[in-house]
Design a protein that fits this description.
This protein has 207 residues and is an all-alpha fold. It has 8 helices and no strands.
Length: 207
């Protein structure tokens, strides 16, 4: 029976699970049925999978459900994972496909998303609390602007910038031509720049 995918927002505490192993080593342990290794894989990759699901579904509960579904599918499919692609690429492909399938089923019934900064999960490298607070607010504004873009632009920005997939990996994950991906990224950047510029002008007018 597959282990339950834990909803986690970061790595396990020191001393928990398998500490120090690379993701590849953990995946290999998972393929041999190691459930402790799988829990560590879930902890290390959960945020990326959840954010991908959320960028497609724009609903917290649905994104959580899809995230659980993704890890159940991954656990069941791990014995057939041959390593032809990076594990992260394979994982994100499952996440995108699962999210798109769920969205098709829910189309017309989706709730409006509330902006509570769920995408603001990047930790600032700054030590100074004041600098960290500024960086946190900047990240919050940036990703809030991303969430106002069309869904296809949200997905490519998430994959390219947050998950740091290569173009070739994005082709594999999204199953669309390289030229289309590059075009969507360029359009997404322009749309994001316009959204941020409009927001800055609005703040200026309000002063």
């Amino acid at each position: 029976m597959a282990p339950t995918a834990r909803v986690a927002t970061g790595a396990l505490p020191a001393g928990a699970g398998i500490v120090g192993d690379s993701l590849d080593a953990l995946v290999e342990r998972c393929r041999c049925g190691d459930k402790d290794a799988f829990e560590r894989v879930v902890a290390d990759t959960h945020t990326g999978v959840y954010n991908l699901a959320y960028s497609v579904l724009r609903n917290h509960e649905e994104a959580e459900d899809v995230t659980q579904e993704v890890y159940l599918r991954v656990w069941r499919s791990l014995p057939s994972f041959r390593g032809d692609a990076r594990f992260a690429t394979w994982l994100y492909r499952i996440a995108v496909n699962s999210s798109l399938n769920r969205r098709r089923k829910l189309r017309g019934r989706m709730a409006e998303v509330e902006d509570d900064g769920v995408l603001d999960c990047l930790e600032s490298p700054a030590i100074d609390p004041a600098v960290a607070a500024v960086e946190q607010e900047r990240n919050r504004a940036l990703w809030a602007a991303v969430m106002r873009l069309p869904e296809k632009y949200q997905v490519v920005i998430n994959l390219f910038y947050r998950q740091q997939l290569t173009y070739d990996e994005m082709v594999e994950v999204l199953a669309i031509p390289l030229g289309t991906i590059k075009a969507q990224l360029n359009r997404a950047r322009r749309a994001l720049a316009g959204t941020l510029h409009a927001g800055q002008e609005g703040q200026g007018d309000a002063v």
